[in-house]
Structures are given as structure tokens and as C-alpha cells.
Amino acid sequence: MSFIVRTVARTADGRDIVRPKSFDKAELSIGRSPSSDIHLPDLAAALNHAVVRTAPGGYVELVATAGMPFVVDGKQSEHERFSAAQGADVRIGSHALSFEPGEGDEKGKVVITVARVGAISNASEDKEEARVFSLASTLPGKRPLAWALALIILAIFLIWPLVSIHTQPTDATRKVAFHADEMWTSGKLSQVHKSLENNCQACHVKAGEAVRDTACAACHTKVHDHADPKKLAEARGSLGIVGGTKQFVGGLFGIQPGRCVECHTEHQGTTAMPVTDERFCTNCHNDMSKRIDTALKDTADFGEKHPQFAPTIRFAGADGAPMFRRVSLDANPKEDNGLKFPHDIHLSATNGVAQMAKTLGKGEGYGAPLDCANCHTRDATGNSFAAVKMETACGACHSLAFDQVGGTVRTLRHGEPAQVVADIRAFYRAGAPRTAAFQGMERRRPGDFATSGQRIDFAQTSAMHIGNADQAIRAVFSKGGACFDCHVVRPTGNAAVPFAVKPVALTTRYMKKGWFDHAAHDTESCSSCHAVKQSHFASDVSLPKLAKCQECHGGQDAKKEVPSACAMCHDYHMTAFAPLMVRNNRARGKAIEHIEEKALKQAGSGA
Asked: What whole-number distance in Å separates Cα of residue 172 and Cα of residue 194?
């Protein structure tokens, strides 16, 4: 047996509106609670007043659940059982529940008709139940209340802050306390501006006026404008209806495009200042060449639309003077660095260089075929590499020793041709009582003078081929000599210093318009990015091309690759330091390391 509940409501003109609802269950709840199956909005009814359920034999059972009685056919009761076929009239508060058997399609069901037949408790007959349960009678009208609240809001959040702005000092005498103008803030300041939290007027100079660039430049003195404002506007192109409207309205209030705060957003929380979103760059740089005359390449997204890398390469000018020019890696540029150095020979795992490295052993810092770390070491920052020094990186194999006095080995002065010539002449001027090794130096590579016996034997052998100082000097600077195979040597025509060595100029930073952090790529091997094992000449620029970086890095919204916004490699105010995004990531990384280290110490002390 199931139930059909018909709720009867009356309109203002006396019409009845019946809303039927079927319940396919054997028990219904009755009460004032909105969750009751039969809802009675009357204070005379308890939240859960009673339950009605079907009983065997075609009976209906009504039971009070809150200890409050109800009236069945004029008789007050807390438990009543009656025949569903005969029905019953039940009264709970101001509501009448009429039970009767269903007919037609409703046969076999109990129909309960619910109607309000009396005045709601504690209320007069003509009051609507919604008003009975409201506080309207105890509060002022809506209009006075609205005006009062509006005036209170204006007084607290407008007038009070304005008074505070015009009465409080803006210098160091301003007390560290709550000031009413702080209520206008949209959030906490970043860590770099945290010291200004007590002085809103340091940036918001005038009340009701947006932050001006002059307020930023008052502290940040070493900054520059991105471009001429007129050219910058042309580079942006059409702003569209929405963008144009915003710019027009902003202009009415003195807000011009290209302000500092368009990129450097504040009040985002007590963290590092948020990194500029990629769109602030691509709004102009995407298809910019179609709008203005510029040498800059169009770019929109690192993963999908970015020009090939163009490092700054050193060339030899017409008169031999060095010149620098940015060249795309697609052109496979060659640089003039003054060296003759083949990477492939030195990184071979099987040739003579590899065997010599094994022979030198771990005592000399080797013991295995050479790798990049044997010559290239990180600088103090950890981002890049220190300049290669001949004495430490090459000296173990390419010795400049030429004489031995007792237990002391004399070496030629590296990087100073004039000093080399002077040392050799001084050696022969002294009568050369000892034998010296100047010729056939290619046979001394690598690892000559490794033992005293080798030094003496070689010195005695080589001495037979050197007759005088000029011959010795020529041997050092000629093919097979100590300098020739690694350096570019040229005759000077000067008898005092007959040879000169082209200065070595190794590039420390190719991407002067960008930034690359080696420390962030420690999980990779050098050869995974730099194809140096296939490099036959020192002039090769072994930088990875764009496609190599795109194997791991995508655009700002990349899902599979590492998300890489413009600010990861580029900085608007470019310096010798890492871009803001990189510095922020490092700061967070150090903070995490500090927290983890502290937690480990605490765990250790607790154990």
C-alpha cells in the first residue's frame, strides 16, 4: 500500500490549487520540518510531529513521535489505528488531514488531503504564513534600513579612509598601526614591498588616483622604458572594441597604456611578486613585423611559434679586429675564438687520448676516457661554467716543461709569447749547461715529464736537435711545437719577438638577450644537448637548436612538456642575473630545502 498526498493552497481570490505527490513507501513523516514528507508550516506542529504508516488488514496507523497529540475524528490521541477504506479526519494545529481510499487509477492507495482550515497559531486569520515567520514587524522598513546601511558603508569605507589619507603623515613618522585607508587594499603586498604595508601613499600618492610610474621610479631608479610609447602603441595593433573602450575610459582618469603596473601586479599575497603573464609579451610580439618595421622576430609561444636561437658570435673583421653579430643557428655559424681544438678527438672513448687518460690514473684526476667535466667546471653561481685554464685543464697532457734544475721543472709561460721568447733566450744566453726540450713537442703529448726518468731521457734526446736560441724559438712556435697545434701563430717580422699567438676569446654567454640555467638541467648529460662528440673544429658553435629545447619545453600552457613562459628565459629589465621567474623558483626551492632540513633535524632530535 502506498500514499498520495494532495496539498491544497488557496489563492487571494479564493481558488484552490491542489498539488498531488505520490509516495511509494509504507511510512510518511509529518511535521514542521522542511524535510518532512507532509510539511505543516505551523508553530503548533512539532518539527517531527508524527508518522503515518500502513498496517496489516488494510489499516492505517498514526503515531505521535514528539509527545504532542493530534485529533482524530474529534478525539485527541497520540496513537490511532483506523481502516483505510473508512478513512478519517485528522487535525494537527491549523491543518486538517483527510484520509480516504483511492478510486480508479488510485485504487489500492491511501489519499491524504492536506489543507489549512484554521488560523495559524499565534497569528490572526488574515496574515500570510510567510509574514508570521518573518521579522518584518520588529525591524524598520526596507527603504529606511537600506538608506541607513548605505550611509554607514559610505562613512566607514569612504569618508573615514579619506580623512585618514589627508590627516596621517606619509613619512617615517607614520605610526605602525591600523589606518582606515588600509580597508581599500585588495590584498597583501608581495615580499619585496612588504615594508610599505603601513604606508599606502608611498605608491598611491593621491587619493582616488591610480599608481603612476613616477611613484615606481622614485625607488626603482635604474630602469628603462621598453620602447617609444608611439611605436609601442603601433606594435600592439588594434585593441578591438572592448580593449579600445577600456583604454579610452582609462585615459579619462589619466591611466595611460604601458605603465609599470600592467606587468608588475601587486596585492596578490605575501609571496614573491607574480611573474608577468605571457600574454603581456605576445600582445605585441605576435606578428609584430606586419605592423611595424622592426628587426625583432615574431614570437607567440615557445612550443609553437618561436624563432630559432640567434647567439652572439665573434668574427674576425676585415682588418683582423674582432666583431660580433647575432646569427641564427640554422646557418650553422662558426666563431673566431683563436683556438685549434677538436672536441671529438678529446672525447673519444677508444683513441690515444682516451688511453692516456686511463694511464694517468685517478691520482691525476683521470682514470677513464675524458668527459666534459675534466675541463669544464661550474662557476660560483652554479648557473654557468668558469673559463677553462690551460694549466689545470690541459697541463696534465700538454706540458710546457722545457728544463729541469735539480728537482724543479721549468715551464714556458702560457699566454705570454714575449715571455716565452725571453725565457728561451735567457736559457741559451746562460750557456745552456743543461739540455732542454723544445723540439718535437708533439711527441711529448700527453703526459710528458710524468717521471724524472722520462724528463731526463727526453731532454737528452731533444738537446741534440736544437743548436741555438732562434732555432729553439722557431721549434716552439712551428708545427709540432708547444704552441702551434692548439693556437693560431703568426710571424711578426720583429726579431726581438718573432712570433705572436692570437689571443683566445672564449664566449662566456652566447644568449645575451636570454637566460639559460645549467643548474636547472643537472638531470641531463652534456651530450644530450651539445653535439660536441661530432665537433671537429674549435670554431663549431655547439649550442642546441630550438627543436632540441622543444623536446622538453612547451609554451606557458603546455600540458605534456615543461610549461615555459617568456619570463623563464627573458626579462624586461635584463641584467646579468637570472630572470624573475628563475629567481622566484630558486627562492621557493631554497625555502623548501630549509623546511625539509629543519624537519629532519627535529625528527632526529625527537628520536
From this structure: 15
Long-range CB pairs of 501-507 (<8 Å, 24+ gap) are 501/338, 501/415, 501/417, 501/477, 502/338, 503/338, 504/337, 504/338, 504/339, 505/314, 505/322, 505/336, 505/337, 505/338, 506/337, 506/339, 506/387, 506/388, 507/311, 507/312, 507/313, 507/314, 507/335, 507/337
Backbone torsions φ then ψ of 88, nearest 5 degrees: -165, 155
Among 430, 462, 467, residue whose Cα is nearest residue 449:
462
From CA 335, how far away is CA 313, in angstroms rounded? 6
Q: What distance in Å separates the CA atoms of residue 462 and residue 436, rounded to the nearest whole number?
A: 7
**233 sits in which H/E element:** helix 229-236
Please report the pLDDT score of residue 588 as a whole number. Answer: 46
CB 282, CB 299: distance < 8 Å: yes
Count CB atoms within 10 A of the CB of residue 461.
14
Identify any residues that bridge with 490 across adjacent strands, giving them in sequence order: 500
Which cell numbers in the block locate residue 291? Answer: 605592423
**In angstroms, rounded to a whole number, what is the distance separating the alpha carbons of residues 542 and 373?**
16
- Residue spans of beta strands (DSSP E) within 129-201: none
> What cell numbers appear for 26 in the block?
509504507
Confidence (pLDDT) at 553: 93
Q: How many alpha carbons lie under 13 Å from residue 291 in its C-beta half-sphere?
A: 16
Q: Which residue has the cell 599608481?
A: 211
Residue pLDDT, tens place only, 159-201: 998 888 778 776 667 777 777 877 888 888 888 888 888 788 8
Half-sphere exposure of 216 (CA within 13 A, CB side): 17
Cell of 263: 606587468
Q: At what angle do helices 469-477 and 417-429 cross, to 10 degrees?
A: 150
Q: Tell me the per-residue pLDDT of 223-258, one tens digit each, with 9 for 90 and over.
A: 766 667 778 878 877 777 888 888 888 888 777 777
Classify each residue of 66-76 as buried b or exposed e, where b means 16 or more C-beta atoms within 10 Å of its C-beta.
eeebbebeeee
pTM of the shown model: 0.59
- In the numeric block, which cell numbers belong to residue 286? 605576435
